[in-house]
């Protein structure tokens, strides 16, 4: 019982520093915020900050991890209203395109959290996205929504790359700010590709 107190206090202090750093990054920007600013905001000494984090980069990494967890919690809320895989993935795409527009809406996400999230290495971001969708794809295999031989990891990576593209590159041919357009794009070109086999063209007819 008594041994849990120091651990709890350490966790609370670390979380306080992260929350204070988040506020400082929002106020001063990622580049201008300093350890002194963070310590002052957390009402602790600089030495206390260094007990938990080696430098500002380590604090930024912790904030990015927190932002990542927040982002996926909010996306899970947005897509779990969908009953089928098709609906879930469609809503995921809508969520991401709204993130691209950086709409400051507490219903979905925090604009500053998106900025922190993007400080992560691209490979790490991709891996997190693949891991997030893996359970949804695996469940769809069990329910027969997708073909039985679907490679969950490969399908997850393919869809994650689609989401990255929707986030980073505005469409020149469709209104990606329209949720209905985005949802239909996913239904037509993503989910249906995961379900049953498509007939192969006969030889001599695919020229």
UniProtKB/TrEMBL annotation:
GO molecular function, one term: DNA-binding transcription factor activity
Entry coiled-coil feature ranges: none
DNA-binding region(s), residue ranges: 34-53
Keywords for this protein: DNA-binding, Transcription, Transcription regulation
PANTHER family, per the entry: HTH-TYPE TRANSCRIPTIONAL REGULATOR BETI, HTH-TYPE TRANSCRIPTIONAL REGULATOR RUTR
HTH tetR-type domain boundaries: 11-71
Lineage start: Bacteria, Bacillati, Actinomycetota, Actinomycetes, Mycobacteriales
UniProt protein name: TetR family transcriptional regulator
Organism: Mycobacterium spongiae
């Amino acid at each position: 019982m008594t041994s849990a107190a120091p651990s709890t206090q350490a966790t609370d202090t670390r979380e306080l520093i992260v929350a204070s750093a988040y506020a400082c990054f929002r106020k001063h920007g990622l580049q201008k915020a300093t350890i002194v600013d963070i310590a002052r905001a957390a009402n602790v000494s600089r030495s206390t900050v260094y007990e938990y984090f080696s430098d500002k980069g380590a604090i930024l990494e912790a904030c990015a991890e927190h932002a990542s967890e927040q982002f996926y919690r909010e996306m899970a809320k947005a897509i779990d209203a969908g009953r089928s895989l098709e609906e879930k993935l469609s809503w995921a795409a809508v969520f991401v395109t709204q993130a691209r527009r950086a709409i400051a809406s507490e219903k979905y996400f925090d604009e500053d959290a998106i900025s922190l999230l993007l400080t992560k290495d691209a490979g790490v971001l991709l891996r997190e996205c693949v891991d997030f969708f893996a359970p949804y794809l695996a469940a769809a295999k069990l329910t027969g929504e997708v073909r039985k031989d679907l490679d969950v990891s490969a399908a997850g990576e393919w869809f994650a790359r689609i989401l990255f593209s929707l986030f980073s590159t505005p469409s020149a041919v469709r209104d990606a700010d329209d949720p209905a357009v985005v949802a239909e794009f996913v239904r037509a070109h993503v989910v249906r590709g995961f379900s049953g086999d498509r007939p192969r063209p006969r030889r001599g007819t695919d020229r």
